[in-house]
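Standup notes
- DV: blocked on the single-chain target, sequence here:
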Amino acid sequence: MPSMEATEVDPLARILVSSWLATALYSHQFREEYDSPPTTIAKAHHFRSVVQARVNQGERYALHPEFMEFGRVQVTDTSLGANYLIRSMSAVSIEENFAKRDQIGLFEVSRAFGISLLPYRFERTGMQLWVCGTKQARDSRRLIPAGELNHVGFWTYDDNLDPGPGGPVFDQGDLDPWDELGDEPDIDGFAL
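- DV (later): unblocked, structure below
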C-alpha cells in the first residue's frame, strides 16, 4: 500500500484524540461518582461511541452502520473517497497472533478489500497512527492487515485544539488522561 500523508487523515485523527480525552473525562467522573473505575470494556465502548457520534456530526466522513452497535468504527472519507477501518494496535497484535496460530496451509487465499486499516496507539503525550491494506480473515468476516503497517503520524493532546465536529475542547485541568486510561481503551472486539 502506498504511504499516506498525515494531512489526509488529520481530521479523523483529531476526532480519535479528542474522543480519547473525552473518555478520560468520563472515566474520571465515573470514578468520582462511584468510587471505582469503569471497566475497560465500558471505557472502550464509550470511546468508540464518542468517535461514532463525532463522525456523524461532521460532513466529511460517513459512518458505516454495519456492526456499529458492537463498536466497530468504519468510515468513508467523502472528500477523498477512501474507506477506513479504525482499530487499536493491541487488537491488530492479537489478531496477528491468532492468524499465526491458526495457519494451516502454506498458501492463504484471501480477498483483498478497498478498505484501509488505521491502527492507533495512545501514549502518554499523544496518539500514533499507522495505515495498511486489509484482507478478509480465513473463516471470518473480520478484516485483518494485508501487508506491512506504514506509520502515518503522531498527534499530541496539546495540539488537539479542534476536537472534531460538535465536540468541546477538552480542558485537561488537573486531570491526567494517561493516569485515567493508560493505553486503553484501545481494545477491540476481534470477533467482529
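- Follow-up: The first strand starts at residue 61 and ends at 63.
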